[in-house]
Design goal:
The protein starts with a strand and ends with a helix. The longest helix is centred in the last third of the chain and has 23 residues. The protein contains 14 helices and 6 strands. The protein folds into 2 domains: about 230 residues, Rossmann fold; about 70 residues, Orthogonal Bundle (Histone, subunit A), CATH 1.10.20.
Length: about 300
Amino acid sequence: MDKPLVVVVAGPTASGKTALGIEIAKRFGGEIVSADSMQIYKNMDIATAKPTNQELSEAVHHLIGFLDPGEDFSVAKYKELAVKTIDDILSRGKLPIVVGGTGLYIDTIINNTEFLDYEKSDIRERLEKRADTEGIGMLFAELENLDPETAKRLHINDNKRIIRALEVFYSTGKTISQQCELSHLAKSKYRFCIIGLTAQDRQFLYDRINLRVDMMLKDGLIKEAEQFFALELGSTAKQAIGYKEIKPYLDGLVNLEAASEKLKMETRRYAKRQLTWFRRNKDINWLSIDTMTKECLFEKACDIISNER
């Protein structure tokens, strides 16, 4: 029996993923599973370019706005929820469409990455206490002895990754590299049709990003940022682009123009990192948003999906 099909729409920020995902859902009777690490949070709407109420009404969306910003989230938890959601969509005869720009989230579904349940162990807590009392240098030296390959890739002050690497070793008896290889051994129960959005002219994408930031400011980003910093925030939500760049303006340290330019620059850099990540995947069907009309791009995407069904 053929594996069920899952469509993926990936690409950098401001490339039009949301609009394309909705059109695909309309054409094929699908439902959208978000793969955005910040759109999972409530009340973080403008900065994360969350789908508008109008867009949400045009297609069923999942895994958007369900978590308080004070709660941390992990890629392991995302995979668990995403797989449950995909299976539910398939059970109702619908087409799952994974849409987003968080490459790690998308890869965990495509590669069927398996994660260890670290939360049931106190290993991490003990390592963190040791880092406080003995210093991270002692743990780094320990890692150099146990897993020299990983140690070579890490900075001596990278507390989080040093502790994670030791945690993996003490939990499994294997290095983090060995564990990563093992985590990808089980093949996915799905088959994938991956559509990637890009721009042959990078400036075209950057212009879209700059325009989006201008629209965010017009739509109330400053007020949303004020409300954001009034919350008790978890470490995951704090990473969101769109708020920390506005903070100096809220503190009276820079003018709005400077804060806006900083946000545009950081968003462009993020888009570049997204493209670098996704281009490693040789199975992506790339479509250029600067060489095709929206209508042609949509029809081409639908042709690609139809050929996979």
